[in-house]
Amino acid sequence: MDSTEVATPLGRSDTTYIAGHRGLVGSAIWRLLENEGFTNLVGRSSAELDLTDRTAVFDFFDETRPRTVVLAAAKVGGILANSTYPVDFLSVNLQIQTNVLDAAVKYEVPRLLFLGSSCIYPKFAEQPIREDSLLTGKLEPTNDAYAIAKIAGILNVQAVRRQYGLPWISAMPTNLYGPGDNFSPTGSHVLPALIQRYDQARQSGADSVTNWGTGTPRREFLHVDDMASACLHLLNHFDGPQQVNVGTGIDHTLAEIAAIVADTVGYNGETQWDTSKPDGTPRKLLDVSTLRDAGWEPAITLEDGIAHTIDWYRNNVAALRR
After folding, report:
1. Is residue 121 among the annotated active site residues?
2. pTM, full prediction
3. DSSP state, residue 129
């Protein structure tokens, strides 16, 4: 199928495999599908199934024979991690994607959703970024290795559609946050890093908090529960070869985001910016027209989402991923 069509809704009793079901996105999708009455969800932790082990992945597909696959498993991290370990981000993600997608082809999985990231788009893409901006310019150097891996995944899905006629799709979310996020000081993305930094400053009574960069880059954020909702909507209602942007269509400066976090955690000190550290892409706002035309809109405001995430962080701080 090379044109956009309406998909057949998923069967709630079909075997549905969520790769990465303990991660930020995968766990949110699992929660939603459970709440929606899906009765045959399958997930494996990385200790139970190493997705870089090709033989193990094929054996797993042979055993479980999923009818739907959500490929949410990935090696992810913030600017520091991506800049420091580009080989890891390229190699591990390519291995995970290739193994899962090849196994899904062999066992003729009817429906698959591949999840990527908005970092696939050129650093200086016209804003808001349309899906057809893909491969039209140079990538942001701080995460180009991860982006190349995700671009390869998109092209893999498109190739499967052309060669095998399977109605697989890809979704590219904007910056995600929410319950289950990574709050590691060296591996987290910007919003969980800000939450941890400001909450610790509140507890310690620190006079100031220092953030990376200038605070001027603009970012769009989507709560992970909204992301899960969008994924299910696309699986039920969308069928097309091009990747679909998933976001809110609204962005803020990092300084504005930091101010919301500081206010929500109750921090009253000063915010400073270390301009010797990189800003990353100056602006990254997605054009979400395709998703809206498919009938989906976000339901969680940034302020409510941040407050919800802070509550979750405080209730789970002892057991957080580090």
Report:
1. no
2. 0.92
3. B
